[in-house]
Amino acid sequence: MTGMTAARLPPRQRSAPQAGHRGPAATPLAIRSAFRAPELDQRRKATKETPAMTPRYDAIAEWYDAHIQSIQPSEALIVPELLRMTGDVQGLHLCDLACGQGHISRHLGRAGAHVTGIDLSSKLLGIAQEEERRFPLGIRYQLDDAQTLSSLADQSHSGCVSNLALMDIPNFTAVVSAVKRVLKPEAFFVFSITHPCFQAPEAHWEVRDGDRVTRVIPEYFQEREWWSVNTESVRGRVGAHHRTLSTYINTLIRAGFTLEAISEPQATGELGTIKPEFATIPPFMVMRWINAGTH
Ligand SMILES: C[S@@+](CC[C@H](N)C(=O)[O-])C[C@H]1O[C@@H](n2cnc3c(N)ncnc32)[C@H](O)[C@@H]1O
């Protein structure tokens, strides 16, 4: 499972068009301009008007599906690390929590796991199911809320994997409680999140000291929903629920999980050239927790 490379990515991703690929254009200058649009107040207004449990991704399902296929640099940084943390999944019953269009479910299915993908967006699940029809891996996709997981039985899974979705869900305590309920004792919970220290409300890039590109985090401690001003990003289109690193960690500890590993992937080599911002700060964080407490 280690070192998954672009050559091992599924056909859809390998043959994906490069439109929207930030590639070599992702220079510090490009980063700067991407964060310049003054739309924050407008976005905040939209936040208030949007009920918490609206499946927001239904409105952007096609865009998100294409986006996933066009961001190979991010994928190359995070997916191998997520799968490395997941380990050998052959024969295991796994839940892909907030699976979206199912690309992580398919990685796990190809590695021999029995996967149930859960998501709130029927449109993204439709894309996932269509892919399952074309290339069957035995993956089941179910419409459900990650905050309850009401379609999954108690202690029914050996592991839960979630890729870049926990920031989309308002009640993290409820998610952790639901995940704990469906996991067997000693089962794992592996997830990636946007790094809460660097993807915080109104975080942006500034150029300082002439040409030094610097990440600015104006407010880390305030836990709230926020929207990126970059409307070409996921967080510009659906927003995110910011919570501090200690909230993530303490919520899991209180629920009876034990931290086994933590990773902040850094872009090196060619990837570091393509995405220089990923070489200076970690945009993502991956954690592996074990369901160690009593039920
Ligand atoms: C950034 S996408 C990540 C999707 C997928 N894990 C991936 O790697 O592409 C976030 C996903 O969370 C889902 N989601 C948001 N709130 C949810 C909830 N309460 N229950 C289940 N899924 C939810 C969205 O529909 C969306 O598919």
TrEMBL record:
Residues 38-48 have a biased composition (Basic and acidic residues). Keywords: Plasmid. Residues 1-52 are annotated as: Disordered. SUPFAM superfamilies: S-adenosyl-L-methionine-dependent methyltransferases. Pfam families: Methyltransf_11. InterPro entries: Methyltransf_11 (IPR013216), SAM-dependent_MTases_sf (IPR029063). Gene3D superfamilies: Vaccinia Virus protein VP39. One of its GO terms (molecular function) is S-adenosylmethionine-dependent methyltransferase activity. The keyword Magnesium does not apply. Residues 96-191 form the Methyltransferase type domain. It comes from the Bacteria. This is Methyltransferase type 11 domain-containing protein.
